[in-house]
Fold this sequence. Notes:
globular
Amino acid sequence: xxxxxxxxxxxxxxxxxxxxxxxxxxxxxxxxxxxxxxxxxxxxxxxxxxxxxxxxxxxxxxxxxxxxxxxxxxxxxxxxxxxxxxxxxxxxxxxxxxxxxxxxxxxxxxxxxxxxxxxxxxxxxxxxxxxxxxxxxxxxxxxxxxxxxxxxxxxxxxxxxxxxxxxxxxxxxxxxxxxxxxxxxxxxxxxxxxxxxxxxxxxxxxxxxxxxxxxxxxxxxxxxxxxxxxxxxxxxxxxxxxxxxxxxxxxxxxxxxxxxxxxxxxxxxxxxxxxxxxxxxxxxxxxxxxxxxxxxxxxxxxxxxxxxxxxxxxxxxxxxxxxxxxxxxxxxxxxxxxxxxxxxxxxxxxxxxxxxxxxxxxxxxxxxxxxxxxxxxxxxxxxxxxxxxxxxxxxxxxxxxxxxxxxxxxxxxxxxxxxxxxxxxxxxxx
Length: 430
Ligand code: AMP
Ligand code: GLY
Protein backbone atom coordinates (compact mmCIF):
# COMPACT_ATOMS: atom_id res chain seq x y z
CA UNK A 1 0.00 0.00 0.00
CA UNK A 2 1.21 3.52 -0.84
CA UNK A 3 0.50 6.11 1.85
CA UNK A 4 0.68 9.89 1.81
CA UNK A 5 1.01 11.43 5.27
CA UNK A 6 0.20 15.14 5.58
CA UNK A 7 2.04 17.32 8.09
CA UNK A 8 5.49 18.34 9.26
CA UNK A 9 5.67 17.99 13.03
CA UNK A 10 6.96 15.57 15.62
CA UNK A 11 3.57 13.88 15.47
CA UNK A 12 3.96 13.12 11.76
CA UNK A 13 7.55 11.95 12.30
CA UNK A 14 6.29 9.46 14.90
CA UNK A 15 3.43 8.28 12.67
CA UNK A 16 5.90 7.88 9.78
CA UNK A 17 8.25 5.85 12.02
CA UNK A 18 5.38 3.53 12.93
CA UNK A 19 3.99 3.19 9.39
CA UNK A 20 7.46 2.41 8.04
CA UNK A 21 7.59 -0.73 10.22
CA UNK A 22 4.57 -2.24 8.47
CA UNK A 23 5.05 -5.14 6.06
CA UNK A 24 1.96 -3.82 4.27
CA UNK A 25 3.63 -0.54 3.35
CA UNK A 26 5.10 -0.13 -0.13
CA UNK A 27 5.85 3.58 -0.38
CA UNK A 28 5.43 6.32 2.19
CA UNK A 29 5.32 9.98 1.19
CA UNK A 30 5.29 12.79 3.76
CA UNK A 31 4.08 16.23 2.71
CA UNK A 32 5.84 18.43 3.49
CA UNK A 33 7.68 16.47 6.21
CA UNK A 34 10.76 17.79 8.03
CA UNK A 35 14.47 17.19 8.55
CA UNK A 36 13.84 13.74 10.05
CA UNK A 37 10.85 12.26 8.22
CA UNK A 38 12.87 11.33 5.11
CA UNK A 39 14.34 8.45 7.14
CA UNK A 40 10.96 6.73 6.90
CA UNK A 41 9.73 7.79 3.48
CA UNK A 42 10.05 10.46 0.84
CA UNK A 43 9.44 14.12 1.70
CA UNK A 44 7.27 15.90 -0.86
CA UNK A 45 7.15 19.69 -1.13
CA UNK A 46 3.37 20.08 -1.03
CA UNK A 47 1.08 22.17 1.15
CA UNK A 48 -1.53 19.97 2.85
CA UNK A 49 -4.01 22.84 2.36
CA UNK A 50 -3.57 22.82 -1.43
CA UNK A 51 -6.07 20.03 -2.07
CA UNK A 52 -5.73 20.19 -5.88
CA UNK A 53 -1.96 19.68 -5.60
CA UNK A 54 -2.43 16.86 -3.08
CA UNK A 55 -4.93 15.15 -5.42
CA UNK A 56 -2.61 15.51 -8.42
CA UNK A 57 0.32 14.04 -6.49
CA UNK A 58 -1.82 11.20 -5.13
CA UNK A 59 -3.06 10.24 -8.57
CA UNK A 60 0.41 10.44 -10.17
CA UNK A 61 1.95 8.28 -7.43
CA UNK A 62 -0.78 5.65 -6.97
CA UNK A 63 -1.46 6.72 -3.40
CA UNK A 64 -3.94 4.33 -1.78
CA UNK A 65 -4.47 6.15 1.50
CA UNK A 66 -3.97 9.69 2.83
CA UNK A 67 -3.36 10.09 6.56
CA UNK A 68 -4.04 13.64 7.72
CA UNK A 69 -1.80 14.61 10.63
CA UNK A 70 -2.92 18.12 11.58
CA UNK A 71 -6.32 19.72 11.96
CA UNK A 72 -6.16 22.52 9.41
CA UNK A 73 -6.81 20.42 6.26
CA UNK A 74 -9.56 18.54 8.10
CA UNK A 75 -11.33 21.70 9.27
CA UNK A 76 -10.93 23.05 5.70
CA UNK A 77 -12.73 19.95 4.36
CA UNK A 78 -10.09 17.66 2.86
CA UNK A 79 -12.24 14.58 3.55
CA UNK A 80 -15.22 16.02 1.64
CA UNK A 81 -12.97 17.21 -1.20
CA UNK A 82 -11.71 13.67 -1.89
CA UNK A 83 -15.05 12.05 -1.14
CA UNK A 84 -16.53 13.95 -4.07
CA UNK A 85 -13.93 12.58 -6.52
CA UNK A 86 -14.60 8.99 -7.67
CA UNK A 87 -11.64 6.63 -7.29
CA UNK A 88 -9.90 8.83 -4.70
CA UNK A 89 -7.54 7.36 -2.10
CA UNK A 90 -8.89 6.41 1.32
CA UNK A 91 -8.75 9.31 3.79
CA UNK A 92 -8.03 8.85 7.49
CA UNK A 93 -9.85 11.77 9.10
CA UNK A 94 -13.30 13.21 9.75
CA UNK A 95 -15.54 15.04 7.30
CA UNK A 96 -15.69 18.81 7.57
CA UNK A 97 -18.74 18.56 9.83
CA UNK A 98 -16.92 16.07 12.08
CA UNK A 99 -13.86 18.33 12.17
CA UNK A 100 -16.06 21.07 13.68
CA UNK A 101 -15.66 19.17 16.97
CA UNK A 102 -12.27 20.90 17.04
CA UNK A 103 -13.02 23.82 14.69
CA UNK A 104 -15.88 25.17 16.81
CA UNK A 105 -15.94 24.86 20.58
CA UNK A 106 -19.61 25.92 20.57
CA UNK A 107 -20.44 23.04 18.18
CA UNK A 108 -18.48 20.63 20.40
CA UNK A 109 -20.26 21.79 23.56
CA UNK A 110 -23.69 21.46 21.89
CA UNK A 111 -22.77 17.97 20.67
CA UNK A 112 -21.76 16.95 24.21
CA UNK A 113 -24.99 18.40 25.62
CA UNK A 114 -27.09 16.46 23.07
CA UNK A 115 -25.38 13.20 24.02
CA UNK A 116 -25.08 13.77 27.79
CA UNK A 117 -21.28 13.64 27.67
CA UNK A 118 -19.77 15.04 30.89
CA UNK A 119 -18.17 18.47 30.40
CA UNK A 120 -18.07 21.84 32.17
CA UNK A 121 -21.33 23.86 32.32
CA UNK A 122 -21.20 26.62 29.71
CA UNK A 123 -22.94 29.23 27.60
CA UNK A 124 -21.91 30.87 24.34
CA UNK A 125 -22.04 34.58 23.60
CA UNK A 126 -21.61 36.95 20.65
CA UNK A 127 -21.25 40.75 20.46
CA UNK A 128 -25.05 41.03 20.63
CA UNK A 129 -25.30 39.12 23.89
CA UNK A 130 -22.28 40.49 25.76
CA UNK A 131 -24.47 41.85 28.61
CA UNK A 132 -25.92 38.36 29.14
CA UNK A 133 -22.35 37.07 29.11
CA UNK A 134 -21.47 39.36 32.00
CA UNK A 135 -24.56 38.18 33.90
CA UNK A 136 -23.58 34.56 33.30
CA UNK A 137 -20.02 35.25 34.52
CA UNK A 138 -21.53 36.66 37.72
CA UNK A 139 -23.20 33.28 38.39
CA UNK A 140 -19.86 31.41 38.16
CA UNK A 141 -17.18 31.07 40.78
CA UNK A 142 -13.64 32.18 39.81
CA UNK A 143 -11.44 31.43 38.03
CA UNK A 144 -13.35 32.16 34.81
CA UNK A 145 -12.72 30.21 31.60
CA UNK A 146 -13.22 32.06 28.28
CA UNK A 147 -12.70 30.21 24.99
CA UNK A 148 -12.63 31.55 21.44
CA UNK A 149 -15.04 29.42 19.44
CA UNK A 150 -12.74 28.86 16.44
CA UNK A 151 -9.17 27.65 15.88
CA UNK A 152 -6.68 30.01 17.53
CA UNK A 153 -3.40 28.07 17.33
CA UNK A 154 -3.84 26.84 20.91
CA UNK A 155 -3.98 30.40 22.28
CA UNK A 156 -7.73 30.95 22.39
CA UNK A 157 -8.38 29.93 26.01
CA UNK A 158 -8.12 32.49 28.82
CA UNK A 159 -8.33 31.55 32.49
CA UNK A 160 -8.93 34.65 34.59
CA UNK A 161 -9.18 35.20 38.35
CA UNK A 162 -11.14 38.44 38.67
CA UNK A 163 -14.73 39.06 37.56
CA UNK A 164 -13.93 42.56 36.27
CA UNK A 165 -11.03 41.30 34.17
CA UNK A 166 -13.15 38.43 32.83
CA UNK A 167 -15.83 40.91 31.70
CA UNK A 168 -13.16 43.06 30.05
CA UNK A 169 -11.61 40.03 28.30
CA UNK A 170 -15.01 38.83 27.12
CA UNK A 171 -15.57 42.21 25.43
CA UNK A 172 -12.05 42.18 23.94
CA UNK A 173 -12.44 38.66 22.59
CA UNK A 174 -15.81 39.49 21.03
CA UNK A 175 -14.22 42.66 19.67
CA UNK A 176 -11.71 40.62 17.65
CA UNK A 177 -8.84 39.64 19.98
CA UNK A 178 -8.50 36.39 18.04
CA UNK A 179 -9.99 37.72 14.81
CA UNK A 180 -12.99 35.81 13.51
CA UNK A 181 -12.18 32.90 15.84
CA UNK A 182 -13.50 34.82 18.84
CA UNK A 183 -16.67 36.25 17.23
CA UNK A 184 -18.36 33.66 19.44
CA UNK A 185 -16.98 33.00 22.92
CA UNK A 186 -17.71 29.98 25.11
CA UNK A 187 -17.77 30.86 28.83
CA UNK A 188 -17.52 27.84 31.07
CA UNK A 189 -17.19 26.56 34.58
CA UNK A 190 -13.62 25.98 35.79
CA UNK A 191 -12.82 22.34 36.47
CA UNK A 192 -10.14 21.39 38.98
CA UNK A 193 -8.25 18.19 38.41
CA UNK A 194 -5.49 16.47 36.49
CA UNK A 195 -5.55 16.18 32.69
CA UNK A 196 -4.85 13.34 30.29
CA UNK A 197 -5.27 12.67 26.58
CA UNK A 198 -7.26 9.74 25.26
CA UNK A 199 -7.14 8.89 21.56
CA UNK A 200 -9.80 6.92 19.75
CA UNK A 201 -9.60 5.59 16.21
CA UNK A 202 -13.09 5.29 14.78
CA UNK A 203 -14.51 3.99 11.51
CA UNK A 204 -17.75 5.95 11.20
CA UNK A 205 -19.83 2.81 11.63
CA UNK A 206 -19.75 2.59 15.40
CA UNK A 207 -16.43 0.66 15.44
CA UNK A 208 -13.61 2.12 17.49
CA UNK A 209 -10.34 1.32 19.22
CA UNK A 210 -8.92 3.19 22.20
CA UNK A 211 -5.20 3.88 21.89
CA UNK A 212 -2.75 3.96 24.82
CA UNK A 213 -3.54 6.88 27.14
CA UNK A 214 -1.01 9.70 27.52
CA UNK A 215 -0.40 12.87 29.50
CA UNK A 216 1.28 15.92 28.04
CA UNK A 217 2.98 18.90 29.69
CA UNK A 218 1.77 22.14 28.13
CA UNK A 219 3.52 24.96 29.99
CA UNK A 220 7.03 26.11 29.09
CA UNK A 221 8.33 26.20 32.67
CA UNK A 222 9.06 23.51 35.21
CA UNK A 223 6.31 22.98 37.76
CA UNK A 224 3.76 23.82 35.02
CA UNK A 225 4.51 27.53 35.03
CA UNK A 226 4.69 30.19 32.33
CA UNK A 227 2.91 30.38 28.99
CA UNK A 228 1.28 27.47 27.19
CA UNK A 229 3.20 25.75 24.42
CA UNK A 230 2.25 23.07 21.91
CA UNK A 231 3.54 20.58 24.50
CA UNK A 232 6.90 20.03 26.17
CA UNK A 233 6.80 16.29 26.81
CA UNK A 234 4.51 13.32 27.28
CA UNK A 235 4.20 10.08 29.18
CA UNK A 236 2.27 6.83 28.65
CA UNK A 237 0.73 5.01 30.47
CA UNK A 238 -0.74 7.47 33.01
CA UNK A 239 -0.85 6.39 36.66
CA UNK A 240 -4.26 7.87 37.52
CA UNK A 241 -5.90 6.72 34.27
CA UNK A 242 -6.27 3.19 35.61
CA UNK A 243 -8.72 0.46 34.54
CA UNK A 244 -11.58 1.94 36.54
CA UNK A 245 -11.06 5.45 35.16
CA UNK A 246 -10.69 4.18 31.59
CA UNK A 247 -13.88 2.15 31.97
CA UNK A 248 -15.72 5.36 32.88
CA UNK A 249 -14.09 7.11 29.91
CA UNK A 250 -15.24 4.39 27.54
CA UNK A 251 -18.80 4.16 28.85
CA UNK A 252 -19.50 7.84 29.48
CA UNK A 253 -17.46 9.51 26.75
CA UNK A 254 -16.13 7.24 23.99
CA UNK A 255 -19.31 5.23 23.34
CA UNK A 256 -21.72 8.20 23.36
CA UNK A 257 -19.32 10.19 21.15
CA UNK A 258 -19.00 7.46 18.53
CA UNK A 259 -22.72 6.66 18.69
CA UNK A 260 -23.65 10.34 18.59
CA UNK A 261 -21.59 10.90 15.43
CA UNK A 262 -23.26 7.94 13.71
CA UNK A 263 -26.77 8.94 14.86
CA UNK A 264 -26.29 12.46 13.57
CA UNK A 265 -24.95 11.21 10.25
CA UNK A 266 -21.57 12.88 10.81
CA UNK A 267 -18.97 11.02 8.74
CA UNK A 268 -15.92 10.38 10.91
CA UNK A 269 -13.21 7.91 9.94
CA UNK A 270 -10.16 8.92 11.86
CA UNK A 271 -8.73 9.92 15.20
CA UNK A 272 -10.73 11.55 17.97
CA UNK A 273 -8.58 13.21 20.62
CA UNK A 274 -10.35 13.56 23.96
CA UNK A 275 -8.74 16.20 26.15
CA UNK A 276 -9.93 14.97 29.55
CA UNK A 277 -9.71 16.13 33.12
CA UNK A 278 -10.14 13.82 36.07
CA UNK A 279 -12.22 15.65 38.65
CA UNK A 280 -11.83 13.50 41.77
CA UNK A 281 -11.69 10.39 39.60
CA UNK A 282 -14.58 11.36 37.32
CA UNK A 283 -13.60 12.03 33.68
CA UNK A 284 -14.90 15.23 32.05
CA UNK A 285 -14.21 16.49 28.53
CA UNK A 286 -12.17 19.69 28.31
CA UNK A 287 -12.04 19.60 24.52
CA UNK A 288 -12.22 17.47 21.42
CA UNK A 289 -9.52 17.54 18.78
CA UNK A 290 -9.89 15.73 15.47
CA UNK A 291 -6.28 14.53 15.13
CA UNK A 292 -3.61 12.95 17.26
CA UNK A 293 -1.88 15.06 19.91
CA UNK A 294 1.63 16.39 19.66
CA UNK A 295 3.77 15.36 21.60
CA UNK A 296 1.42 12.59 22.82
CA UNK A 297 1.82 10.77 19.48
CA UNK A 298 5.56 10.55 20.16
CA UNK A 299 4.77 8.19 23.05
CA UNK A 300 1.52 6.62 21.82
CA UNK A 301 3.17 5.25 18.66
CA UNK A 302 5.80 3.52 20.79
CA UNK A 303 3.08 1.80 22.77
CA UNK A 304 1.02 0.45 19.87
CA UNK A 305 2.28 -3.08 19.37
CA UNK A 306 -0.06 -3.85 16.46
CA UNK A 307 0.62 -2.93 12.85
CA UNK A 308 -0.86 0.54 12.30
CA UNK A 309 -1.40 0.25 8.53
CA UNK A 310 -4.26 -2.31 8.61
CA UNK A 311 -5.83 -0.42 11.52
CA UNK A 312 -5.87 2.86 9.60
CA UNK A 313 -7.11 1.11 6.46
CA UNK A 314 -9.94 -0.53 8.40
CA UNK A 315 -10.90 2.82 9.96
CA UNK A 316 -10.96 4.53 6.57
CA UNK A 317 -12.97 1.68 5.03
CA UNK A 318 -15.45 1.58 7.90
CA UNK A 319 -14.72 -1.87 9.31
CA UNK A 320 -12.58 -1.51 12.40
CA UNK A 321 -14.57 -3.80 14.68
CA UNK A 322 -12.58 -6.98 14.00
CA UNK A 323 -9.14 -5.40 14.25
CA UNK A 324 -6.97 -6.04 17.29
CA UNK A 325 -5.02 -3.16 18.83
CA UNK A 326 -2.39 -4.52 21.19
CA UNK A 327 -0.49 -2.32 23.60
CA UNK A 328 3.21 -2.61 24.33
CA UNK A 329 3.45 -3.14 28.11
CA UNK A 330 6.51 -0.91 28.45
CA UNK A 331 6.45 2.75 29.46
CA UNK A 332 7.15 5.40 26.85
CA UNK A 333 8.15 9.00 27.51
CA UNK A 334 9.19 11.93 25.39
CA UNK A 335 11.02 15.15 26.24
CA UNK A 336 10.77 17.99 23.75
CA UNK A 337 13.91 20.00 23.06
CA UNK A 338 12.88 23.52 22.05
CA UNK A 339 14.47 26.71 20.73
CA UNK A 340 15.44 29.38 23.29
CA UNK A 341 12.64 31.97 23.48
CA UNK A 342 9.83 29.56 22.51
CA UNK A 343 6.81 29.94 22.76
CA UNK A 344 7.67 33.61 22.11
CA UNK A 345 10.09 34.69 19.38
CA UNK A 346 13.05 32.41 18.76
CA UNK A 347 15.85 32.15 16.21
CA UNK A 348 15.84 29.58 13.42
CA UNK A 349 18.59 28.03 11.34
CA UNK A 350 20.81 26.90 14.26
CA UNK A 351 22.98 23.86 13.46
CA UNK A 352 21.92 20.74 15.39
CA UNK A 353 24.40 18.15 16.62
CA UNK A 354 23.94 14.75 18.21
CA UNK A 355 20.60 13.91 16.61
CA UNK A 356 21.82 11.28 14.14
CA UNK A 357 21.56 8.17 16.23
CA UNK A 358 19.71 7.59 19.46
CA UNK A 359 20.71 4.94 22.01
CA UNK A 360 19.06 1.52 21.92
CA UNK A 361 15.41 1.77 23.02
CA UNK A 362 15.20 5.48 22.20
CA UNK A 363 14.24 7.41 19.10
CA UNK A 364 14.53 11.06 18.07
CA UNK A 365 11.36 12.33 16.42
CA UNK A 366 12.09 15.50 14.50
CA UNK A 367 9.66 18.41 14.74
CA UNK A 368 11.04 21.85 13.79
CA UNK A 369 14.07 20.69 11.82
CA UNK A 370 15.11 20.95 8.20
CA UNK A 371 18.09 20.00 6.10
CA UNK A 372 20.16 22.94 4.86
CA UNK A 373 21.42 23.13 1.26
CA UNK A 374 24.65 21.34 2.26
CA UNK A 375 22.78 18.65 4.20
CA UNK A 376 23.37 20.18 7.65
CA UNK A 377 20.52 19.64 10.08
CA UNK A 378 19.11 23.01 11.18
CA UNK A 379 16.42 24.19 13.59
CA UNK A 380 13.34 25.53 11.82
CA UNK A 381 10.73 25.79 14.55
CA UNK A 382 10.06 26.25 18.26
CA UNK A 383 9.75 22.60 19.14
CA UNK A 384 12.78 20.98 17.55
CA UNK A 385 13.19 17.31 18.53
CA UNK A 386 11.11 14.97 20.67
CA UNK A 387 13.39 12.55 22.54
CA UNK A 388 11.28 9.43 22.98
CA UNK A 389 12.27 6.32 24.87
CA UNK A 390 10.98 3.03 26.19
CA UNK A 391 11.53 1.84 29.74
CA UNK A 392 10.45 -1.07 31.89
CA UNK A 393 9.11 1.57 34.28
CA UNK A 394 8.52 5.31 34.25
CA UNK A 395 11.89 6.17 35.77
CA UNK A 396 13.84 4.13 33.24
CA UNK A 397 11.98 5.65 30.28
CA UNK A 398 12.34 9.20 31.63
CA UNK A 399 16.05 8.75 32.32
CA UNK A 400 16.59 7.69 28.70
CA UNK A 401 14.50 10.60 27.35
CA UNK A 402 16.50 13.07 29.46
CA UNK A 403 19.80 11.52 28.27
CA UNK A 404 18.52 11.95 24.71
CA UNK A 405 17.56 15.58 25.33
CA UNK A 406 20.99 16.20 26.86
CA UNK A 407 22.78 14.71 23.85
CA UNK A 408 21.09 16.91 21.25
CA UNK A 409 22.94 20.19 20.86
CA UNK A 410 22.12 23.57 19.35
CA UNK A 411 22.56 27.16 20.47
CA UNK A 412 19.88 28.20 22.96
CA UNK A 413 18.30 24.77 23.45
CA UNK A 414 15.92 24.25 26.36
CA UNK A 415 13.92 21.37 27.77
CA UNK A 416 11.88 20.74 30.90
CA UNK A 417 13.61 18.46 33.39
CA UNK A 418 10.40 17.68 35.30
CA UNK A 419 8.41 15.84 32.63
CA UNK A 420 6.56 12.99 34.35
CA UNK A 421 7.48 14.17 37.88
CA UNK A 422 3.81 14.45 38.92
CA UNK A 423 3.08 10.91 37.73
CA UNK A 424 6.18 9.58 39.48
CA UNK A 425 4.84 11.09 42.70
CA UNK A 426 1.44 9.41 42.15
CA UNK A 427 3.10 6.05 41.43
CA UNK A 428 5.33 6.33 44.50
CA UNK A 429 2.32 7.17 46.69
CA UNK A 430 0.42 4.06 45.53
P1 AMP B 1 -8.39 23.83 25.40
O1 AMP B 1 -7.79 24.59 24.25
O2 AMP B 1 -9.89 23.82 25.42
O3 AMP B 1 -7.77 22.49 25.58
O4 AMP B 1 -7.91 24.59 26.72
C1 AMP B 1 -6.54 24.78 26.98
C2 AMP B 1 -6.26 24.44 28.40
O5 AMP B 1 -7.01 25.28 29.27
C3 AMP B 1 -6.66 23.02 28.80
O6 AMP B 1 -5.69 22.08 28.48
C4 AMP B 1 -6.85 23.17 30.28
O7 AMP B 1 -5.61 23.10 30.95
C5 AMP B 1 -7.40 24.55 30.42
N1 AMP B 1 -8.86 24.52 30.48
C6 AMP B 1 -9.73 24.58 29.47
N2 AMP B 1 -11.01 24.51 29.90
C7 AMP B 1 -10.95 24.39 31.23
C8 AMP B 1 -11.94 24.27 32.27
N3 AMP B 1 -13.24 24.30 32.01
N4 AMP B 1 -11.51 24.16 33.53
C9 AMP B 1 -10.18 24.17 33.82
N5 AMP B 1 -9.22 24.28 32.90
C10 AMP B 1 -9.57 24.39 31.62
N1 GLY C 1 -0.59 18.21 22.99
C1 GLY C 1 -1.85 18.82 22.79
C2 GLY C 1 -2.27 18.95 21.39
O1 GLY C 1 -1.75 18.33 20.50
O2 GLY C 1 -3.20 19.71 21.15
